[in-house]
# Entry
Amino acid sequence: MTRRAWVSWRAAAVALAPAFLAQGAEAHLVETGLGPVYDGVAHFALSPEDYVPIVGAALLAGLRGKDHARLAILLLPLAWLVGGVLGVLPGAPAFVAPLWLPFLAIGGLVAADIKLPVGATAALFAALGLILGYPNGLAMHEYGQGLRGVVGSTAAIFVLVTLVAALAAGTTIAWIRIAWRVAGSWIAASGLLLLGWALRAQ
# Structure
């Protein structure tokens, strides 16, 4: 990587990461006035700490081919739904995974373009959906949106993953695949910055 490319990559990561951190500092629910389902959609759409790793996972699946893309379309929303339902349950213990972890893991895999077997992809998507969906369910319970809010966010994930995974899976031009991998490197770099800030805050 040339020095110029490295500087551009680092500058983009620095510019993106504060936005992710600011959104993740305090969970809040946006009330659309259209009901709990749409509130769940809006909450997901305004939570980059949720949708950026989901987009990264969809890119990873698409880069690995149609079989992996189909798996992502099915498994990511399903795992998110299961995690959300568990979080909505009364008395569910508070748990939020470190903000940097999904960024770093998913972004690194996309950037490296690692050829994962289908079983490993399935396990990764299940884990990602659960650890991101559970705090979403906690938020829906806290703000009284309940299961309908979780359903709304799950529907948003299904649409987002379907579009991104299909787009990436249909990519045959080499430079476009490189662009997807660069996007993954930005996600991973944001995760590194978030990790550094987390360690500094301790």
User: Anything to note?
Assistant: DSSP finds eight helices and no strands in the chain. Confidence is low (pLDDT under 50) at residues 1-27.
